[in-house]
Every structure is written in structure tokens, then in C-alpha cells.
Amino acid sequence: MPLDLAPYAVTPTNSKGRRYAEEPPAYRSEFQRDRDRIIHSAAFRRLVYKTQVFVNHEGDLYRTRLTHSLEVAQIARTVARSMCLNEDLVEAISLAHDLGHTPFGHSGQDALNACMREFGGFEHNLQSLRVVDQLEESHADFPGLNLTYETREGILKHCSATNARGLGELGERFLQRQQPGLEAQLANVADEIAYNNHDIDDGLRAGLINLTDLATVPIVAEQLDVVRHRHPGISGRREIHEVVRSMIGVFVTDLINTSCELVRDAAPVDIAAVREQPSALIGFSDGYASEKTALKQFLREHLYRHPRVSKMTKQAQDIVSKLFEIYLNDYQRMPPEHADRARSHHDADGLAGGARVVADYIAGMTDRFALQAHEASRKGS
Ligand code: MG
After folding, report:
1. All residues at 6 or more sequence positions from 203 whose CB lies less than 8 Å from its CB, including other chains
2. What is the mean pLDDT of residues 101-117?
3. Which residue of 105, 120, 267, 363 has the fewest C-beta atoms within 10 A of its own C-beta?
């Protein structure tokens, strides 16, 4: 049973609504409808074959963008329910937050951004919004999924001032330095809790990091002690899983306690008051914020920059850059619907218009599709 929502939570009544007016749903809330549209989208299905850290074909047990998004959603829902925030909304935001990711994770995005430098750049957050606002073709009456303002607000975590100016009301907060709703703030922090912890698990599984080195991070050492004290003689996968579980637990507990305090002190009367706050009301205590920073730093140095990951990164960047060059030089090398779109956007907006369609096509690829397309191009087909 849904609990009563806090006065500062987003509700279907205080929602700023959809870009194209629709009848309210018969059996679901507006935000359940958003979630369902996201789950039924083609971009969501592709997340299963997109890299989080490890390329999709490296192993079946690693996180993909899909399982990552599910983990984000479950963490965000737990916190939302305990704080009487809108659980349906945080679920929708969490499931959609990575829809715009390119194949091959951040290395794919960096490569595509470099290719698009002269044409306005490429940014995965903005691309996630583009997917739900324009690229999905599910409805007869409007482009995209026509999601609520609040789900779109949550998807757009970051945005440059230049891009914000082209986004109307949704871009305003980046120019006015306002906050998004609490549900959007929460999905963002849940994302961090999820990837920091599951990357530990995946990194250990891949043998790229080990528990001894990892225990140089204070919070890991602390939770390892707790686990060993609670389960003497524990080892192997069970020990790792207990530590990861324990870490998620302490981060979530600190997040709930700190956020409840921040909300109580700021006492926002409604969602408008949340948006006017000088800073976010969902966050960690100072202690946990620095624990999180130390953990991220360890992962950056030892996992994301590990030679094996870097090698993959370099290959991924080469593939994305090569595909971009091929398609930009000859739109016909893309499937007919993309080639047609590229030509019509080129006619309207010049090369930048065509380049954007090429970027959309490449960003939509899964890891394995991009590998196959690259392989096919090398054979000249
Ligand atoms: Mg994410």
C-alpha cells in the first residue's frame, strides 16, 4: 500500500504535466505510466547489451546498463518509501537515467563527444532526454514517450548553460541555479551508491582488483571487519557479497538519516520550496561524503584505469570514431530510415543536422551491434 506522501513530494496533482496533454491513466498513477512507457521502449531493451564497465561479451555475470538501472531503482525506491517521497517517480527516473548511453560506456561517450565537437558535442544525459522526448517512436500522436515534466527533470542530471538555453523550462534550473525535486535528487544519489558498490563486485570478480588493496579504503576496511566479526571464517564470494551488501546498507542508512535532517531543517512547504533551496536536500553526511570520495578515487585509479579496461577503452573509442567517420561521409551506409533522416536533417540544418542523426544512430547501438558494424565496415560491406 502506498504511504501518504510528504507535502514536498511530487504528486500527480502538483505535477507540471506532459508536453502533449493526455487523458489521465485509468488504473495507474501518471508516474507509473511513465515507468511503463520506459520499460516498453526500444532504448530500454538495448540496455541489456550495453557496457557498464566491462564490454558486454566479456562475461555473463557483470553488470550491464540494464541491471545497473534496476539496482539504482531498487535503492531509490527504498529511500523514497522511507522518506514518503514518490516511489513511482523515482523508479521511472532510475530506469530511464541511462537510456542515452552509447555502446562501450564512458569511453564510447567520450569518443562520440570528440566526433561531435564541431556539431554541438554529445552528452549522455542530454541524449537520454532526447531518447524519451524525440527518438522513441511508440505513439501516433506525439514524438518520444511524452513523459511528465518531473521524470524528464530527473533524467537531465547535468547540463551545460548553452544546452540549457535550448531546453525551455526544463533548462531553467541550470541557469537559475535551482534544485530539482527531491525524487530527482534521490535517483541521482542512488545511481552513485549503485555503481560504486557493484563496480567493486565486478572488479573483484574480474580479478582486476583484490580485497587486500580494496581494504585500504577506510569504509571497506570497516565493513570487512564488521562482516568478519559477524561471520568468523567467511571467505570467497560470500565474503565479498556480504561486504558489498553491508556497504550499500550503511550508505543508504546515512543517506536517509542525513536527508531527513536536511529536509527537517529546511522545512520546505511544497515542491516549489524544494526547487528554491540553495542546495540539495538529499545527500550524505560529511563523513560519508568523504568515504564515498575515497572509494571513487580507488575505483578510478585501480579499476577504471586498469590496463585491461584501458585497452578496451581504446578499442571502443577507435570503433566509435571509425563508424562516425564512415556514416558521416556516406549516409547510405546506415539503414534506410536513418539515412533518410540524416539527409532531411542535412537539407534543413547542414552537416551538423546530418551529424546529429549519425550520433543518434551510433548512440543507440548496443556493444555487440557496434562491434559487428565495425567488423562489416572493415570487410567493406
Ligand atoms: Mg547510471
Report:
1. 53, 209, 299, 302, 303
2. 92
3. 267
Question: What distance in angstroms lies between residue 380's CA and the mean position of ligand 1's atoms?
Answer: 35
Ligand 1: centre distance to CA 216 (Å)? 25
DSSP class of residue 101 equals P
Residues 6+ apart with CB under 8 A from 14: 270, 271
pTM of the model: 0.95
User: Looking at the predicted structure, is the pLDDT value of residue 1 above 50?
Assistant: no
Q: Pick the closest to residue 51 from 61, 64, 42 (CA basis).
A: 64
Cell of 167: 531546453
- Condensed to tens digits (0 to 9), the pLDDT of residues 145-193 reads 999 999 999 999 988 888 899 898 999 999 998 999 999 999 999 999 9
Query: Position of cell 543507440?
Result: 364
Longest dimension (CA), the chain: 69
For residues 25 and 36, the answer to whether their CB atoms sit within 8 Å is no
Going from the Cα of 347 to the center of ligand 1, the distance in angstroms, rounded, reads 35
Alpha carbons 303 and 270: distance in angstroms, whole number: 42
98 C-alpha to center of ligand 1: Å? Answer: 5
pLDDT of res. 73: 98
CA of 329 to the centre of ligand 1 (A): 32
47 to 42, 114, 299: CA distances (angstroms): 9, 23, 23
**Whole-angstrom distance, CA of residue 358 vs CA of residue 6:** 44
Q: 280 is written with which cell numbers?
A: 540539495
Q: How far is CA 231 from CA 168, 242, 361, in A?
A: 55, 9, 50
- Say whether pLDDT at 57 is over 80: no
Topology of domain 30-308 in CATH is: Hypothetical protein af1432 (1.10.3210)
CA-CA distance, 291 to 293, in Å (whole number)? Answer: 5
Cα–Cα dist 189/201, whole Å:
19
Q: What is the pLDDT of residue 140?
A: 92
